[in-house]
Amino acid sequence: MSDVSGMTEIERIAAGETADGGAVLELRNVSRSFEDAGGTLTVLQGVNLSLMPGQVTALVGPSGAGKSTLLHIAGLLEAPTGGEVLFQGQDCGDASDWERTLIRRDGIGFVYQFHHLLPEFSALENVMMPQLIAGLSRREAKERARQLLNLVGLEERETHRPAKLSGGEQQRVAIVRSIANVPAVLLADEPTGNLDPHTAEEVFRQLRRIISATRIAALIATHNHELARAMDRVVELRDGTLHEIK
Ligand SMILES: Nc1ncnc2c1ncn2[C@@H]1O[C@H](COP(=O)(O)OP(=O)(O)OP(=O)(O)O)[C@@H](O)[C@H]1O
């Protein structure tokens, strides 16, 4: 898979080159089952999903339907039992662990219900961290982190540590941190699940604004049907299969 420059195709893709103008992330006929003493539990079967740039897709479904499992597979955190996951046209089933790590690091942003900010660092440093890991200089990382915090109205809070921020502010920091490396895909698991309804709506509004400005393809699992309906597209997991409901 390496070319003369020494880079593999997936490394070039993770470095920002797109294969074509189509789906950024695609699940094809994906299934996932778990084996335990009681037998086989099939959580996903025949799941097809294409995420397009700039589009926000809500993922809904009852508790235990498999939303987190689907997000883990889409985020290359776990492999499907069957089917394919394509990142910018490239089948990730063929990728090495290192190539998958590169795609996750440079191509995919994650937001969770609980923000996982680093408590001993300021808001600014938390947003700088993934950029420093990706090899940006401190100056560049700081400048971009400032712009991002500004975008979500937190310019006055950049020196605050997470404990000094409200829940909504912490989640806004987590969101801009997840997109600091301008990933092609954003995957979010209940990103506003621990916020009050008003703050959840505000955080969602800002998340949408960032996504359409950056052309990120987003998949957001939520139990909040009202917020889901406000997104471009809604898919529902029911009995292991995915249904397009908006
Ligand atoms: N590693 C595992 N081993 C066995 N079963 C698992 C494993 N991971 C998930 N499951 C099962 O898969 C099903 C789907 O779980 P998942 O967490 O994906 O659902 P969910 O839709 O995200 O639920 P919730 O909305 O409650 O967060 C559940 O029945 C869960 O118990």
Automatic annotation (TrEMBL):
The record, for CDD domains, names: ABC_MJ0796_LolCDE_FtsE
Which cellular component terms (GO) are annotated to the entry?
membrane protein complex; plasma membrane
Question: Which protein are we looking at?
Answer: ABC transporter ATP-binding protein
The UniProt family comment states: Belongs to the ABC transporter superfamily. Macrolide exporter (TC 3.A.1.122) family.
Cell membrane found in the keyword field = yes
For the ABC transporter domain, which residue ranges apply?
A: 25-245
Keywords, in A-Z order: ATP-binding, Cell inner membrane, Cell membrane, Membrane, Nucleotide-binding, Transport
Pfam families per record: ABC_tran (PF00005)
**Which InterPro entries does this one have?**
AAA+_ATPase (IPR003593), ABC_transporter-like_ATP-bd (IPR003439), ABC_transporter-like_CS (IPR017871), ABC_transpr_LolD-like (IPR015854), MacB-like_ATP-bd (IPR017911), P-loop_NTPase (IPR027417)
Q: Which domain of life is it from?
A: Bacteria
Instruction: Give the species this sequence originates from.
Output: Nisaea acidiphila
Q: Return the PANTHER family for the record.
A: IMPORT ATP-BINDING PROTEIN, LIPOPROTEIN-RELEASING SYSTEM ATP-BINDING PROTEIN LOLD
Q: Could you state one GO biological process linked to this protein?
A: protein localization to outer membrane
Q: Which is an annotated GO molecular function term of this record?
A: transmembrane transporter activity
SUPFAM superfamilies reported for this sequence? P-loop containing nucleoside triphosphate hydrolases (SSF52540)
